[in-house]
Amino acid sequence: MSPKITTELLKQLRQVMKSPKYVQEPIQAYIVPSGDAHQSEYMAPCDCRRAFISGFDGSAGTAIVTEQHAAMWTDGRYFLQAAHQMDNNWTLMRMGLKDTPTQEDWLVSVLPEGSKVGVDPFIIPADQWKSMSKALRSAGHDLVPVKENLIDTIWTDCPQRPCKPLIPLDLSYTGVSWRDKIVALRSKMAERKVLWFVVTALDEVAWLFNLRGSDVEYNPVFFAYTVVGMNTIRLFIDGDRMMDPAVREHLQLDSTLEPEFKIHVMPYGSILSELQAVGAGLSPKEKVWLSDKASYALTEAIPKAYRYLTLYTPICIAKAVKNASETEGMRRAHIKDAVALCELFNWLEKEVPKGTVTEIIAADKAEEFRSQQKDFVELSFATISSTGPNGAIIHYTPVPETNRTLSVNEIYLLDSGAQYKDGTTDVTRTMHFGTPSAYEKECFTYVLKGHVAVSAAIFPNGTKGHLLDSFARSALWDCGLDYLHGTGHGVGSFLNVHEGPCGISYKTFADEPLEAGMIVSDEPGYYEDGSFGIRIENVVLVIPAETKYNFKNRGSLTFEPLTLVPIQTKMIDVNLLTQKECNWVNSYHQKCREVIGAELERQGRHEALRWLIRETEPLLKVQ
Amino acid sequence: MSPKITTELLKQLRQVMKSPKYVQEPIQAYIVPSGDAHQSEYMAPCDCRRAFISGFDGSAGTAIVTEQHAAMWTDGRYFLQAAHQMDNNWTLMRMGLKDTPTQEDWLVSVLPEGSKVGVDPFIIPADQWKSMSKALRSAGHDLVPVKENLIDTIWTDCPQRPCKPLIPLDLSYTGVSWRDKIVALRSKMAERKVLWFVVTALDEVAWLFNLRGSDVEYNPVFFAYTVVGMNTIRLFIDGDRMMDPAVREHLQLDSTLEPEFKIHVMPYGSILSELQAVGAGLSPKEKVWLSDKASYALTEAIPKAYRYLTLYTPICIAKAVKNASETEGMRRAHIKDAVALCELFNWLEKEVPKGTVTEIIAADKAEEFRSQQKDFVELSFATISSTGPNGAIIHYTPVPETNRTLSVNEIYLLDSGAQYKDGTTDVTRTMHFGTPSAYEKECFTYVLKGHVAVSAAIFPNGTKGHLLDSFARSALWDCGLDYLHGTGHGVGSFLNVHEGPCGISYKTFADEPLEAGMIVSDEPGYYEDGSFGIRIENVVLVIPAETKYNFKNRGSLTFEPLTLVPIQTKMIDVNLLTQKECNWVNSYHQKCREVIGAELERQGRHEALRWLIRETEPLLKVQ
Hints:
The structure is a homodimer.
Chain A: H1 7-16, E1 29-33, H2 49-54, E2 62-66, E3 70-74, H3 79-85, E4 91-94, H4 103-110, E5 116-119, H5 126-137, E6 142-145, H6 150-154, E7 167-168, H7 171-174, H8 178-191, E8 196-199, H9 202-209, E9 211-212, E10 224-229, E11 233-237, H10 245-250, E12 263-266, H11 271-280, E13 288-291, H12 296-301, E14 307-310, H13 314-320, H14 324-351, H15 359-371, E15 376-379, E16 384-387, E17 411-416, E18 418-420, E19 423-424, E20 427-432, H16 438-455, E21 459-460, H17 469-478, E22 488-490, E23 499-504, E24 519-522, E25 525-528, E26 532-535, E27 538-545, E28 556-561, H18 579-602, H19 606-615
Parallel strand pairs in A: 1-5, 3-4, 5-6, 8-13, 11-12, 13-14
Antiparallel strand pairs in A: 1-2, 2-3, 7-9, 8-10, 10-11, 15-18, 16-17, 17-20, 18-19, 21-28, 22-23, 24-27, 25-26, 27-28
Helix pairs in contact in A: 14-15, 14-18, 14-19, 16-17, 18-19
Cofactor (chains A, B): Mn(2+)
GO molecular function, one term (chains A, B): metalloaminopeptidase activity
Subunit structure (chains A, B): Homodimer.
């Protein structure tokens, strides 16, 4: 990796920062956050502006360029990568270290008195604008919105915003029509006494209309906004994709509909002016509902007194609770995914000892097996295929510079998943293709105990996921071990592999209570820097639990694993398991054998079936 | 209980609400919160203004009186009591029910346009003022501070503010001199770049000066404020108690001291004017540190730009971590407390079958046995002595109207504690003096499993207590049971039995991380409305834990029970315990037998000793 030379680019940026063509008054600093106008986790190439200006392309980072300085804030995962990818024009601000200033403090320390700091109001969320603006103002500076993105003005070969065809999903996948979703949304709006709802997150637009896209890698979404009124629906979207007859029929664009279900298709870029028009026409007590995370530009389009902001939108909450069709789809997707992984692990077992399989080859092979399955669309995230010390890098993905060969002497960790038309998968298995050491087995078994503790937990209806996080750590804690990430995240249904508003993490307090139909991951781990990484991840469905009693009639919940891939018994120290844990593993493996075995049989994959049978032999615990 | 007749009082209050003697302009509503000027949990009688005006004397409630209405907001614990204690002049606002308006919404709905709402600025915390004031302003009303408390103007027989003698604590109790505490506080102030620190919580003043008082029942504190500068100390306190030679010597009031340790004693009532003088004399960048919870009056004395507000003060955090002398004191106090309880339970065992022991008699007997112990000062809270259905009322204390006779047919729950000069205790035991049913034993055993799960938990240094809360519930959850309160609270050292900033509760997220030397309670329970209550509570000390490994060199923590009172084995269904849990109970009882047995022996309490020996027989678990 050689750093990107940015001298010329920074010169150009500093010129436009003073150009009356783009700014009313010269600005003394320009902020380039990661992130697009929808606060997406994954970016389209045209939105990777921070990577363009700096060379640093990690998933998290904020660049700030002043007349004299260029500085990049990023977290511990990316210190090394950022240092390699950026040239000497840049100062790396290592977040989390004691002496690293915040962006606000740094700006105050370097700016001349009464400076203006610019930012694209479409990229910065309203809540971040608020705190940044307050801090700057109290030091005598101003945060100002710069309408045209200044990076775009100097990015001559900027890729076009993707505008790929849409995939309409019929009722057999979604369970609920978009009309019914609009009706439900309007009823939530009526409850809160709001007249308008602005949909800004891409997965919320996709979910609402039962449409999918491929504008962004891994997330089957498309660039669009929606504004839903009590009697109108406006969909802001570009390109000729709305000419597709299947899409037109799906959205009933050419039918005679009741006016309140008529979708008005408008250009993507007209959202701001349309919203401003809505804002200007409001009477007292008429409110517009927006997410807390919507961009400053859209939030400002609505006068403050008319805004109704919430952390989670009603779509986010409805989307998290999967209906029967979605749940069945997720089950099917996970069965296919398990077939692909049985094939992969059977193949790896034969090939790894030859010394020819690298992390990249293994990842590609996993994708190949997945792509053979029905309704496969794409991967759901960049495959983490890591062996030995690479396994300890929690957000690792193999690149040629780091690519390591799998061997019979090292632990292999594979965290991967796919998008199928019927569901989204995300599974981690940790395998040894030789003989694991007693210590490796010990650590693996603690992680397994944590995984089982969450998966088998019974808890009252309405419990928030963060209250389950410690169950995953208890066995590790007993021995002085731990892992530095959350235990689980929400998973979309043929949508984003990471979705809110539920999850299992000690870091959050604002998660929504778990309820039946929600789907989360259960993925404790243990990482030993420089030697190995262990993680065991299933996607699990929240289901009602039968209990002996029923306090206050609240009802109880538990989890059903959707992921059905054997957990390598070779890595388990059975003596460390309780009988209950041992029974859990055996009945899990029994289910893998039955369900995945039948599908392998049906697909005629006999070698993988034999592998599955062998890997699901019951554990024997000596009493 | 007959309601208090408040017609005349309300008439008088409404008169003073318009009297130019007290208000610049007439006010249309007056808020009477619970609470004193220090945000204390327990009130002196002179501060029970809300009880005086309404008759309702529960621990939580806010009264608002307008020209036409009088309304009382309280929570589910007190719906019945408030309804009984208040006459028809009052409307009960049942908080937590869907149709109950907030105080702000109610005020807006009943007030004429442009009203003024008054409140005593010393009683309302600054953060509550802020939100209330904002809500009223946005509806066109004003929240105004009324200097003189209007209840006091009509409360002709208002008791005097207590002004009892002070108890100086020497180094053998406190471990650190008040001078060293001042030095440590100033170093924290220097770290945060503040010049002044205002101590408003009574237990913080008491802790800082190693003094105790008895102005408030149960909490050994005294009415005072303190303002610490980098070179000055001002103590605001009334009465001739500063004439006591022991106090003068303790505070070195008559010694020649370096000026920065010279304590300037000033009248309690002069805090506001002194603080205003401090505020007026500040130069830019000079800050004054106050708690978020300090009163609006004191917070306003400091211009906004000069305020430095935090949720927890440095004194609150330092006070929570007990030093070796305090820990030793707490151990001694708990040994004495256990002696008293062994005597009590031995006595109850003999007396209950006679049918002559009521809840009140049992509570009095507990106090009698405690008062026989060295350095006993008073109880640390109102004893919860409850049998049968009364046990299910979580905040029950027996009064003649509810007083029930203990019997061999009902579960008895005793939650009690005391203040000794060397420490504060708080212990709950649940006993059966006949034969418990299988169901009662089952529930008790789940609660015990939860108690042990927390007490024996090992967790990384820096873990927040709320992450341990689910451990206490897991066994109950497995059977569909739960309890609707937190699992533990911080405990002071001869100070408040409930103290921040640590605890074990699902309800909070802002607790400070646990560290060695902190002391909390571990008190899961189970309550069956109308039939029984179960709770098992020990006070436990956070101590370092030895673990096999040590991830990232963080170190681990666990708990050591300070409470050493047998847990009734008759109530335990041994078959429901794991071997590990069984071992925990046996080794806990072994320690009770050794430590408390030796003290009973020393005190010549042979009958109680025989009771202890019998009650600490090891459980036998059939493998």
